[in-house]
Specification:
Elements lengths: L28 E3 L13 E5 L8 E6 L3 E2 L5 E2 L2 E5 L2
């Protein structure tokens, strides 16, 4: 779900302790390129919401500085869509 040449996070203090030994450390998001339906991504960080005017459900977030994946991989810039 993300590029493997990114830097693997050495410390995973941001994960719950039980995630280290369970499947919670697996990827739970998709990282994508910026797309037109995302609207303005001019801010440094923000939310990604459904492009349907009647829906506007939060789908994920973005950060030009980067975000950590649940597996410990760092993605920068990050346009993250949660899978559930």
């Amino acid at each position: 779900p993300h590029f493997t040449e990114g830097e693997v996070k050495r410390s995973r203090d941001w994960l719950p302790a039980e995630a280290e030994s369970s499947d919670m450390g697996a990827c739970t998001s998709l990282f994508v390129e910026p797309m037109r339906w995302m609207g303005s991504v001019d801010d440094q960080v923000g939310k990604l919401v459904c492009g349907n005017a009647r829906c506007k459900q939060k789908l994920g977030g973005f950060s030009w500085h980067g975000l950590p994946c649940s597996c410990g991989q760092w993605q920068s810039p990050a346009f993250q869509i949660h899978s559930s």
